[in-house]
Structure formats: structure tokens, C-alpha cells
From TrEMBL:
Gene3D superfamilies reported for this sequence: Histidine kinase-like ATPase, C-terminal domain
Catalytic activity: ATP + protein L-histidine = ADP + protein N-phospho-L-histidine
SUPFAM superfamilies found in the cross-reference section: ATPase domain of HSP90 chaperone/DNA topoisomerase II/histidine kinase
Membrane-spanning ranges: 13-34, 143-166
InterPro entries for this protein: HATPase_C_sf, HATPase_dom, His_kinase_dom, HisK_dim/P_dom, Sig_transdc_His_kin-like_C
Domain of life of the source: Bacteria
Pfam families referenced in this protein's UniProt entry, alphabetically: HATPase_c
Keywords carried by this UniProt record: ATP-binding, Kinase, Membrane, Nucleotide-binding, Phosphoprotein, Transferase, Transmembrane, Transmembrane helix, Two-component regulatory system
Its EC number(s): 2.7.13.3
Domain Histidine kinase: 183-385
Protein name as annotated: histidine kinase
Amino acid sequence: MNSIYDSRQRWKLAFIFVAILIAIASGVVSDLLIKDLAREERQKMEIWSEATRVMTSENPSLNMNLILKIIQGNTSIPVILCDETDSVVSYNNIEIPEKKDAGEFMTYKVRELKAKNPPIVIDMEDGTFQYLYYDDSINLKRLLIYPYAQLSVVFVFILIAFLALISTKKAEQNKVWVGLSKETAHQLGTPISSLIAWVEYLRTKELDPVLLAEMDKDVKRLQTIAERFSKIGSDPDPVPTDILESIRTALGYMQTRISSKVKIHTHLPEKPIWVLMNDSLFAWVIENLIKNAVDAMEGQGEITLRVEEKDKSVWIDLTDTGRGIPKSKYKTVFNPGYTTKARGWGLGLSLVKRIIESLQDGKIFVKSSEIGKGTTFRIKLRKYKS
């Protein structure tokens, strides 16, 4: 099942890569358009400056109407014409605010335009020079902003679509969990009832009481499993429970059912810690984590379970000395169907995550892991205050 999630990860990376390429392509195209428009505007300003120079000459053969049309044709590019001392000779497409001094404002504007574009030098043919300072047109300014606005809209659209997809996927997964769990509990109900009847019947016969006691334990275990699946498929009412007692019970059950080569060490506070939860389901969490640790250690090693009490929460760390988990798989291990074993459904950690997250502010995650040395899972739960 690993290949399914590896394939999904590759598709995600491919999607991100394509999105980056689109963003880069959009930026490059916009940059080319901006440069072309900026070059065109400078050419217009050079023509405008030449028309201004010619306007001051006294050549009677000039077509003054054409020159005036060129000068008056600039309706979008702010320009300021200055002499050699930066005194303003004329200006166009610039509005002076009513509450500001015209001289101070134009001096400020000249400094501003100097910084924006290189000036166009006009040789007046009388030994003097004038300088044309100009700003970008409103269309060029809009084009400068457009790529950012475009990418922002695309990003928001993709984000909304992604969140909607995740929400839909999670809702579908919940429906599958509920349906599967209820159906499993229902299917187990009939054979369990039959087994209970058979155990009661066998009690009337002269059979070994120890054997019957073990059979009764197994039947009750099946009842517990069916009850857990039934609760997974519904919203069980949580009750205040001493989490330390629940952990001890789960450990007591597991210690007799795992290899003697696996040593379990516990570090538990002495005082009870109360959490609002379902005791049966939480015991299932501990059992699944221990089974997962035993599989990771291949039947031999050490498991350390540590409980740490905080102001408003309780942390439960379960550490094994198994094969470890790659950092890229920290979240993937909780996906339904993910497993590294040749046989298995890969539902253990997924069930654990669902149970923990159904508790108030419950979280479970891989705290740390090192290949060949082991893994630590951390559970965070909110303490109950009466």
C-alpha cells in the first residue's frame, strides 16, 4: 500500500511544480510586456521633447499644427520640463494639490521623477540644455500590478479548491469509517451470541474448568472488539476517566500477549489524571500503538511509555527501539491502508488517530524517529476539570 501514498505524494509535487512553472511563465510574459510598454513610452517622450525643442525655434517652414498635435497628444504620461538648474519650465498631466505650495510640490515631484526614469536631455541649440523628467503612465502602473493581482486570484482559487477537496475527502472517509465499523460490529454480533450460548452449554458438561475459563475470556474479548467497532461508528459519550488506570489496564492485557523478548518500561505519575474520554476506545489506542511498536521491533526490544502532566493537558509518549520511520512518512503512517508489512490492512494507526481526534482537542503525531534506532509517538489530551 506504500505505493499508493508515494504516488499521491508525487502527484502533489508535480502539481506544485506545474503551478510554479505557470507563475514563472506569467511573470516572464508580464515582464516582457512591461519592458515593451516602458520602451514605447520613452520613445514617445523623446518625440515629445524634440517637438518641444522645435517649438522654440523660429523656423517658418515648420508645420506648427503637427508639432502642437504631438505636444498635446500626451494625455497619460506625467512630464516636467526643467532647465539646467532644475527650475520648472513647464509640466503636463500633473495636478497640484490645493492645500500644498506649488513650488514645494513641484520640487518634490522633480526629485521623484528623477529617481523613476533617466531624464531626456534636450539641446536647445543656443548653448543651453533642458531636461525632461517623466513618470510611468497609468496603464504601465496597472500592468505592473496586474501579475501580482492575477497570481493572488489564482492562489486564492486553488486554495479554496484544495480545502474543498480535503473537506469532501474527509467527509467521505468518515462515512466509510462509520459504515465499515457498524457493519463489522453487526456481523460479529451473531457469531458472538452463538459462542456465548455454546460456552454456557459446555459448562453443563464435564469439561476442564480452566479450558472453559479461557474460552470465556476469548468470547468476552470478541464482545469488547465488537463494542469498540460499534462506538467507532457512532459518537460515544465520553466520561471522566483516570487515564493512568486505563493505561495500566491496557498494558496488563498486552504484556501477556506479546513476546517475552519485549520489555515495557513505564514512567507514570502517582496521582490520577482525569480526561474526558471513552475508556474502551482509549485502551484500544494503547493496544494498537504497542502492537505497532512490537512489529517495528520484529518481536524483540524495549518499549517506554511516559506520561507527563502539563497545566491544561497531558502528554503520553510511547517510544520503541524499532526500525524507525523516514521523516517524509511522519504523516503518511496515519493514512488508512498504509503499511510496511507484507500482510496487514494498515488500519491500526488510522484507527488510533480517529479515536484520539474524536476526544476533546486530542492530537497524535510522530514526535521523533531515527532509522534503525526507534520512534516516539506523542498523544496530547486536554485534562478534565470538574
